[in-house]
């Protein structure tokens, strides 16, 4: 019987050792990932308060400000995104999602260069009432969120 207990103890130590090695390998892989592998969400107020470096890719979200959507040559589009506290000019070249419109929530991915957000991707919404959680939280913080039923909502 003592040989069986020794075998169980040895197996337990082996399993714990292998699990520890796997955790260490995952942490090492995350440590050596390039900085642009992680994209952070920022509201327009956060971008104005602390402008990121031009080479930092991040996501910005809010409402497309009414009256700012301008379609240029080809697929060039400019507009402003706001969270009620600040507005950021956005430039994008590409095809917009079908539900993209003024006054609607949006999330864009890109870089903030010379006071303008250069978007490389505009993320689509699921339907007219959907708003990404990050955008919803930022609008609630500013006190400008209005629920789909027309009632003002704050945190």
UniProtKB/TrEMBL annotation:
Residues annotated as transmembrane: 12-33
Membrane topology summary: Single-pass type II membrane protein
Binding site for heme: 126, 130
SUPFAM superfamilies: Heme chaperone CcmE
Compartmental location: Cell membrane; Membrane
Record-level Gene Ontology MF annotations: heme binding; metal ion binding
Entries under InterPro entries matching the protein: CcmE, CcmE-like_sf, NA-bd_OB-fold
Gene Ontology terms describing biological process: cytochrome complex assembly; protein-heme linkage
Record's GO cellular component terms: plasma membrane
Entry keyword set: Cell membrane, Cytochrome c-type biogenesis, Heme, Iron, Membrane, Metal-binding, Signal-anchor, Transmembrane, Transmembrane helix
Gene3D superfamilies to which the protein is assigned, alphabetical: Nucleic acid-binding proteins
PANTHER family, per database record: CYTOCHROME C-TYPE BIOGENESIS PROTEIN CCME HOMOLOG, MITOCHONDRIAL
Family indicated by similarity: Belongs to the CcmE/CycJ family.
General function of this protein: Heme chaperone required for the biogenesis of c-type cytochromes. Transiently binds heme delivered by CcmC and transfers the heme to apo-cytochromes in a process facilitated by CcmF and CcmH.
Protein name listed in UniProt: Cytochrome c-type biogenesis protein CcmE
Upper classification of the organism: Bacteria, Pseudomonadati, Pseudomonadota, Alphaproteobacteria, Rhodobacterales
Gene giving rise to this polypeptide: ccmE
